[in-house]
Amino acid sequence: MDLTLKVWRQENAKAKGKFEKYQIKNISPDSSFLEMIDALNEQLIQDDKDPVAKEPVAFDHDCREGICGMCSLYINGRAHGPDEEITTCQLHMRKFKDGDTIVIEPWRANGFPVIKDLMVDRQAFDKILQSGGFISANTGNAPDANAIPIGKDKAEEAMDAASCIGCGACVATCKNSSAMLFVASKVSQLALLPQGKHESVKRAHAMIAKMDELGFGHCTNTGACEVECPKGISLDHIARLNREFLAANLMP
Amino acid sequence: MPAGPIAEKWTKYKAEQDLVNPANKRKLDIIVVGTGLGGAAAAASLGELGFKVKNFCYSDSPRRAHSIAAQGGINAAKNYQNDGDSIYRLFYDTVKGGDYRAREGNVYRLAEVSNDIIDQCVTQGVPFARDYGGYLDNRSFGGALVSRTFYARGQTGQQLLLGAYGALNRQIAAGNVTMHVRTEMMDLVVVDGKARGIITRDLITGELNSHFGHAVVLATGGYGNVFFLSTNAMGSNGSASYKAYKKGAMFANPSFVQIHPTCIPVHGDAQSKLTLMSESLRNDGRIWVPKEKEDADKIRKGELSPLDLPEEKRDYYLERRYPAFGNLVPRDVASRAAKERCDAGYGVGSGQAVYLDFADAIGRLGKAAIEARYGNLFQMYEKIVDTNPYELPMMIYPAIHYTMGGTWVDYELQTTIPGLFSIGEANFSDHGANRLGASALMQGLADGYFVLPYTIQRYLADQIGVARMNTDEVPEFNTVKKDTKTLIDKLFAVKGKRSVDSIHKELGHIMWNHVGMGRTAEGLKEGIEMIKKLRKEFWEDVRIPGKENSINPELEKACRLADFLELGELMAQDALHRNESCGGHFREEYKTPEGEALRDDKNFMYVAAWEFQGTENPAKLHKESLSYEAIEVKTRNYK
Questions:
Q1: In chain B, what residues touch A83 (CB-CB under 8 Å)?
Q2: B159/B23 Cα distance (integer angstroms)
Q3: CATH number, domain containing residue A106
Q4: How far lies B432's CA from each of A212, B36, B104, B403, in Å?
């Protein structure tokens, strides 16, 4: 496949960025999207006409199997590109056509400043979880694992919520840059389990307050996050968060 | 190693060890490098105890560590299934699975604390799979006759890591752990013979910094990426362990590499990594190739579909060769058997693939049951390969997955440098020459939650009088920092023509062909020469674009590759000296008439610990002989 790429280039967090255009040839449709960018970078580094090596495009990636949540990218206007329930590393070039122009941008949200090219700073997510996204149990405190049975339905629902990989597609795709799906999935997972119930109200309030403080917007229920979530995490978790934890605050 | 019967060693050790009192814990700094299962669990647990922990990771969040990609599960000797499991049996299976090349006492302790891990994880909110009664479910993994593997769909590593990450976040919020993200350890600092800190590079600003610790813990994972293509994450590397080796920590059994039998086959030259399909799939999938070469040939040409082949024309070679364990033989055995069939001309796909077929299981249990067990794995397979595994059998082939070798440690997980500890995949300790499935997660968490937080205190009890150092005033810190700067300058100064990846891919080919699944003395010698040559070429022709003082992934990769180019040679040297076949180390010269691994217990029942003697000199061998008191040493038999 031969492709035209329009890639966001930005020197650092303070610099002004712009799109650069690149031509790339002979990409296998069986390559992943990131392998295609590897090929572009190889081309930039080894460009013989240029005595000074050109800087390759910086992008975040690590496991390349759709689970670490490190890869991001807004591809042709969609978080993680044109496929359903997928991360960019699992997106394959067979989803594009020979001759296509592909526009590649970083996540864009107040909470996620660009630090170089396609890389953003997502430490805000860590900070939200540090504010309460855990069960307070020291190592060694635990009773036998089967001491408290947990209904299969509850365990499965907790697992659905727990599948979040913290990639930030929900924020990037939301017109308000809200992190509500991210917060709600953790609140839901822990509140559904008997071990996490005790702290659930405190946890929900702390995490929401931290989300607000870090510049993420409010949820207006557009549902875009659910559509782009690579793990298919449901909007129902936001509804639970609102119903069970936040409503108590608004109504006496 | 504490004296006494094996089942009492750990209890005895704990009863007699030195501890640090709470007021003194606050005065002690511990550096933990890495935030995977071992690192996150250790940092969190040490923080809970009251130590001041500095934790480092190269990615943007501790949650990215590659433990997150482990799919199938975690072993424990709970015997919830009432199928005859026990601590002894888990211990026995692990030692046998490792082909009698692991240290007995360490493995017994691992089996002993395995049950505490499951309890701890459930308490943290890890949503393990459960049955309708609400109790924990188990499945089977290779090399075991019981069901002892706990799992959370095909995302067990993710859930366990997020549990440990939650505990870590709590300690970060409490101020006991300081987290340094996008920060890479560049070297170890040794002062008066003791590990006292590390030099790091800030991956955003390029700044080099010194960090002091009363002790340093490496939880930096394995070095499988020396092969370029592996199931490791792109950033996984061996540099922390290798730098420690160059500073005097011995490196044990470097040639013991695990090749995982069920990975998605390579698609072409542009491939950047290999994706695992969990071993748990072998619970329900049957592995086969065509019985006739002509059929294999037709399938490769696309003239025949696997669905066209009737039962009698299929060779379920694992069930044929190993009737007792069948498709659930250990990984080394399954990998070699796949290679043997493909080399003999029976492979499908590109010729380097075999089938993993779920038709029987779908017929027996229904598609919904299979989807519930492995849904996310099937979806991942379809996204990558573009065929539907519910309809057509999966194609799989062995790939580099895990390294059993690593930094040598004693019973306390301390290396040969006092004050330097190594945990999880980074050390060599528990898996011998082959690791059983679902035991890596067990070891990472055992070391991090339940072993290191005890054993490190014996060392630290002696350190309470040592004041925190101001690194600017300690010459050793300044020297090592300067060395790091020199290394970086040297890399930029080459200004050659070849990209880091192109050289890394070449190293990967050498390693796969010469230090891979089937090794020979001749091939290893040739491999060593090729690695030396390539290393020279790297230092003469590598091209690193960009700047030192900004985000520069090419520089990061070059620093890691520089170490791989030396470590690869050490692996080959170790493989060459070990004139036997055991576990994942298979020397073609040493096999039974049936093609099974032939151990030489008389001459090689020892841990090979290598001591650095300079980059261009062969490493020096030290032997730790292994003795088995609680287990009778036998030929491994899965028939």
A1: 383
A2: 34
A3: 3.10.20.30
A4: 50, 21, 10, 10
DSSP at A24: E
Q: Which CATH architecture has domain B260-401?
A: Alpha-Beta Complex (3.90)
Chain A CB within 8 Å of residue B554 CB:
yes
Q: Which two tokens stand for residue B186?
A: 């560049």
Closest approach of A136 to chain B, Cα-based (Å) = 7
Q: Does residue A133 belong to the interface with chain B, where contact is any CB pair within 8 Å?
A: yes
User: Which helix (H) or strand (E) covers residue B626, if one does?
Assistant: none
pLDDT higher than threshold 70 for residue A19: yes
Q: Are residues A243 and A196 in the same domain?
A: yes
Helices B156-174 and B37-49: crossing angle, nearest 10°?
Answer: 30
Q: What percent of chain A has pLDDT over 70?
A: 97
Nearest CA in chain B to A89: B384
Residues 423-482 of B with CB under 8 A from A: 449-450, 453
Can you tell me the mean pLDDT for B122-138? 97
Average the pLDDT over B612-633 and give the result. 96
Domain B6-76+88-256+404-460, CATH 3.40.50.1820 — does that match?
A: no
> What tens digit of pLDDT does each residue of B165-220 get?
999 999 999 999 999 999 999 999 999 999 999 999 999 999 999 999 999 999 99
Of B330, B435, B4, B53, give the one whose Cα is nearest residue B219: B53
Span B27-34, average pLDDT: 98
Torsion of CA A150, A153, A154, A156, to 10 degrees: 100
Cβ B61 vs Cβ A130: under 8 Å: no
Judge whether residue A252 has pLDDT over 50.
Answer: no
Q: Which residue of B has its CA nearest to A68?
A: B64
- Shortest distance between the Cα of B41 and any Cα of chain A, in A, equals 9
Could you tell me if B81 lies within 8 Å of chain A, comparing CB atoms? no
| Closest CA in chain A for residue B42 | A139
How large is the ipTM? 0.97
Q: What is the pLDDT of residue A249?
A: 58
Question: Nearest residue of A to residue B67 by CA position?
Answer: A68
Q: What are phi and psi of A105, to 5 degrees?
A: -130, 160
Alpha carbon of B120: minimum distance to chain A alpha carbons (Å): 5
Do A96 and A131 lie in one domain? The reply is no
Instruction: Enumerate the domain spans of chain B.
Output: 6-76+88-256+404-460, 260-401, 475-612
Count of the separate structural domains present in chain A: 2
CB-facing half-sphere around the CA of B629: CA atoms within 13 A: 10
**Contact flag A143-B41 (C-beta cutoff 8 Å):** no
Helix B104-123 to helix B87-97 angle, to the nearest 10 degrees? Answer: 120
Segment A29-56, tens digit of pLDDT:
999 999 999 999 999 998 877 777 789 9
DSSP B373: H
Q: Which 221-250 residues of chain B touch chain A by CB within 8 A?
A: 231, 233-235
Residue A175 belongs to domain spanning: 122-136+146-250
- What is the share, in percent, of chain B residues with pLDDT greater than 70? 100
Nearest CA-CA distance, residue B158 and chain A, Å: 8
Predicted confidence band of residue A122 (pLDDT cuts 50, 70, 90): very high
B323 touches A at CB < 8 Å:
no
C-alpha distance from residue A130 to each of A94, A142, B162, B233, B605 (Å): 40, 21, 12, 25, 47
A46 part of contact set with chain B, CB < 8 Å: yes
Average of pLDDT values for A100-108? 98
What kind of fold does domain B475-612 have according to CATH?
Answer: Methane Monooxygenase Hydroxylase; Chain G, domain 1 (1.20.58)
Mutual orientation of helices A200-213 and A180-192 as an angle, nearest 10°?
A: 170
Q: For B260-281, what is each residue's pLDDT tens digit?
A: 999 999 988 889 999 999 888 9
Closest-CA residue to A136 (of A183, A206, A53, A84): A206
What are the catalytic residues of B?
331
Q: Do A90 and B544 touch (CB under 8 A)?
A: no
